[in-house]
């Protein structure tokens, strides 16, 4: 996971700067980026596209972000990619690092290096039958469906792990409750995104064809189904379970009911306070991200997800750079200790404040925007929308109440909260980006001015008659009307 974070940071810095070493490599950006089958790129490929298709050859690493990506060609180096959906059916020479919604490796996918690893942070990671990962697999997310083979160890943190292939080393997993019934609701939530994925039930399942040549160690609220072969020991660690949704609804668990009500009130109070302040202080600015959500829903989710992922390594790296570049030299120079303390506290406080504002916006303000949009849709359908302030506040309260109820639910609430946070954050960033672009485009070009001599006055323009011929009227002037003055003095 550490290599994945560094890779995402590398992507963001190179694509943002667009100079230095990136100029010596290939950079693709735009709506559709296609590396044709006959095309060969010598060096690294940096991509920021809506859709990315690599059908040719890249003799280097691939780093980038895309809404949808497909690798059917050949990449000799590593892959660092953030995408809504990535399908690999070609050849990758080294490791694959992925962060996004859906990752799938088809039977024709090849990781050619003997030490190639797969690292994934996603909703779903699937290895089709016939796929072989030479070394280790590290995955976190909702599910990992492994029908292929893994030469090394397997580590997984999530809800569902299904093994129908062979694992050459140990398996260490943390999975969800097999009795949970929230998978159908989750499948419904992801339908609008159009991702090609079929979610499986939570828990651990090792099918008859599954083989684990090492030890199996997993943590869950209930034992999984292990019908395959495990050469080593099987160690199951049981954790305490939370109330099931049906139990909460039927009030069979009073503690669960109190917990649900408490979480709902707490969530509603925080979001309502932020929303009311926003509508009272900056009502016009409060509307801009909502409009962006309505017109650019999917781009908002993608941009919010990317910004949230790369924010963690950027925060850590910037903190390290501040210490190494600004604070450590002052200590080495043995300056006054009080000055060093005040300067260090000011710089670290400023950076910590900036990071706090970003995460406050990403976690709370972004969800208020989505809640306000949901409330507007409901209120408009029920009582109409006349654009008054009263309707605005009613929409805010209705949307926040609905979001607080859903977010407080087990399993579904975490996923819904994350998706709405990504949507709202992405919409805010889109508005900021559009505003900055408009500011750049509206800067007038500096006008050329002639500097006046100090103490001088600007004289009125003088009209000077054109020169006349000394012999009287010139050619063509002998037939003028009587009393006509050719030039008025």
Q: What this model shows, in words?
A:
- With about 500 residues, the protein is of the alpha/beta class.
- It folds into two domains: about 1-240; about 250-440, no CATH class.
- It is about 40% helix and about 25% strand.
- The protein is built from nine helices and 23 strands.
- Strands 1, 3, 5, 7, 9, 11, 13, 15, 17, 18, 20, 21 and 23 form a 13-stranded parallel β-sheet that branches. It has a five-stranded parallel β-sheet with strand order 2-4-6-8-10, with no helix packed on it.
- α4 crosses α5 and α6 (about 295-330) packs antiparallel against α7 (about 335-380).
- The longest helix is centred in the C-terminal third of the chain and has 46 residues, at about 335-380.
- Mean pLDDT is about 75; it is low at about 1-25.
Largest sheet, in brief, is: 13 strands, parallel
N-to-C terminal Cα separation, in Å? 89 Å
Average residue-wise pLDDT: 77
Task: Count all strands and give the number.
Answer: 23
- Please tell me the total number of domains: 2
Overall helicity: 40-55%
Overall shape: it is globular
Radius of gyration: 32 Å
Q: Which structural class do you get from the secondary structure elements?
A: alpha/beta
List unreliable stretches of 5+ residues.
1-24
Keyphrases for this structure?
2 domains, disordered N terminus, five-stranded parallel β-sheet, single chain, 9 helices, globular, 13-stranded parallel β-sheet, 25% strand, alpha/beta, 489 residues
